[in-house]
Amino acid sequence: MIANINNEQRQKDLEQIPKFINDSDFEYKFQEYSAIYYLTNEKLSNLYNEINFTKYKTALTVLSSGDQAFNLVLEGLEKIDTFDCNRLAEYYALGFKKTAIQCLDYKDFTNLFYLRQKKLYDLESEVIKHMPEEYKLFWKEYREEYRQYYPYPSVLGLAKEHNFPNGNNIYFSKESYKYLQKR
């Protein structure tokens, strides 16, 4: 989690978004500010089947969409450290997505990735309402800023594409999702 996000850093992070969100070359670049991955593009379920997780209690993984860490939680790991060069990844993965997992039922969570416009905006609002203050402030300011361009600005507006199959994640089954919520 971002340790003590101050207003100055949050403002700097918010100020960077217009520089790339309206850029036709807006894509997933490995730099301080770029598009977020809204879901993993790796087939984690296949990869994790090749690892004997009973030997491990800790892991280090890229944060990105948060899916690597969330799937490791499902595998029973107890301490997971993450890293990412993209500052926006943390606001999304640990601010938005982690909170969504904690507060939404399975149907509403999966709807986050398929709904559009007003329904998505309302569902995202519910998630934002429940997140830790340092993340809540970022997303509220982001939405306020982008309301001038879009009537229902979405958190997923920071992603370049929305076409990754959810079959890459172990937690996209109802039973696994409920278990992840408990963990």
Kindly describe this structure.
The protein is mainly α and 183 residues long. It contains eight helices and two strands, in the order ααβαβααααα. The chain has helices at 7-21, 44-48, 67-74, 87-103, 106-111, 117-130, 133-146, 174-182, and strands at residues 58-62, 79-83. Strands 1-2 form a two-stranded parallel ribbon. Strand 1 (58-62), helix 3 (67-74) and strand 2 (79-83) form a beta-alpha-beta unit. Helix 4 crosses helix 6 and helix 4 crosses helix 7. It is globular, with a radius of gyration of 16 Å.
Output the radius of gyration: 16 Å
- The amount of beta strand, in percent, is 5-15%
| String of helices and strands | HHEHEHHHHH
Shape: globular
Strand order of the largest sheet: 1-2
Determine the structural class based on helices, strands and strand pairing: mainly alpha
How many strands, which pairing sense, and closed or not: the largest β-sheet? 2 strands, parallel
Which residue ranges are poorly predicted, with pLDDT under 50 across at least 5 consecutive positions? none
CA distance, first residue to last residue: 17 Å
Mean pLDDT: 87
Number of helices: 8
Task: Count all strands and give the number.
Answer: 2
Question: Fraction of residues in helices?
Answer: 40-55%
Helix and strand layout, with pairings?
Layout: H1 7-21, H2 44-48, E1 58-62, H3 67-74, E2 79-83, H4 87-103, H5 106-111, H6 117-130, H7 133-146, H8 174-182
Parallel strand pairs: 1-2
Helix pairs in contact: 4-6, 4-7
List keywords for this structure.
183 residues; 8 helices; mainly alpha
